[in-house]
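Structure in, sequence out. Go:
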């Protein structure tokens, strides 16, 4: 075991220097993965911009029906044309979403406890690799709880899923969950994102925080940023803009889209930031125009 006392703190992130391992493929750190995995990654990260807009509506797997998701069959179809990837459970997809949409699928593959439980950190792998293949998953999403009681088992879930995905060319999306006793500090996110990438996750989902450019610089695979709880539209767009400026390769947003007073407007506005370099004011105008203001 390395002696962690006396560990020299990392500080030389060279945030102004591009990722060194560059070939012809547009997804960071994925130059040498197999053809099938590259094909699935290209379904997620659009080759023109290298970025992605994921619509997360997997909340029901531990929250039940939350505001905006009472009727997935009605709420999701108008949003789907404006995003690249649908992040959902197999139950939601099979029952409520037609398979004809030509979108990436980030299949939620971990589950464990409901919001009735005080500690959500004990999850299991909830989808067999064969069913992920049957669902034509573009990636499999596994939650990890670094620093929480369920840390070890959640890392085991992640590593088993990565092994299974590597056998069949399906990337794994490692989701950084923040345990209830953890603080959302840059140090925490630096630790968690790097750990998940080193375990072999091909994509990392985390939250935006200060010094974000250091987190993306030190993570050798693409980071997508979670939306988090509902804030004002302007605040959500600002967070999305700062994330992209800080080196994120996309957003994986739920409540700040489907709980907005104009979900389609927010999906379009996020898309403009992610794919077209729109600034916050331009994006806000797109949202307001869709709202009819
Ligand atoms: C939970 C998730 C969810 O998909 C995601 O966090 C929900 O999106 P949002 O926070 O934007 O509502 O990964 O762990």
């Amino acid at each position: 075991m390395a002696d962690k006392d006396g560990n020299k703190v990392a500080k030389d992130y060279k945030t102004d220097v591009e990722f060194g391992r560059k070939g012809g493929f547009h997804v960071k750190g994925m130059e040498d993965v197999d053809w099938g995995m590259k094909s699935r990654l290209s379904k997620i990260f659009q080759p023109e911009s290298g970025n992605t807009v994921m619509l997360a509506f997997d909340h029901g797997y531990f929250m039940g029906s939350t505001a905006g998701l009472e009727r997935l069959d009605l709420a999701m179809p108008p949003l789907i044309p404006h995003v690249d990837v649908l992040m959902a459970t197999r139950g939601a997809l099979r029952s409520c979403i037609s398979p004809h949409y030509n979108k990436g699928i980030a299949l939620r593959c971990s589950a464990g406890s409901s919001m009735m439980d005080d500690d959500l950190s004990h999850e299991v792998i909830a989808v067999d690799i064969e069913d992920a293949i049957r669902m034509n998953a573009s990636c499999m999403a596994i939650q990890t709880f670094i620093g929480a009681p369920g840390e070890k088992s959640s890392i085991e879930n992640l590593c088993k899923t990565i092994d299974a995905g590597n056998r069949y060319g399906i990337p794994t999306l490692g989701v950084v969950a923040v345990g209830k006793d953890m603080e959302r500090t840059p140090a925490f996110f630096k630790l968690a994102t790097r750990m998940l990438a080193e375990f072999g996750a091909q994509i990392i989902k985390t939250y935006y925080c200060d010094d974000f450019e250091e987190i993306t610089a030190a993570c050798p695979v693409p980071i997508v940023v979670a939306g988090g709880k509902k804030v004002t539209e302007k605040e959500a767009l600002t967070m999305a803009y700062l994330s992209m400026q800080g080196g994120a390769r996309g957003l994986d947003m739920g409540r700040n889209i489907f709980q907005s007073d104009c979900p389609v407007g927010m999906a379009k506005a996020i898309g403009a930031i992610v794919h077209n370099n729109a600034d916050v004011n331009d994006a806000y105008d797109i949202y307001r125009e869709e709202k009819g203001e």
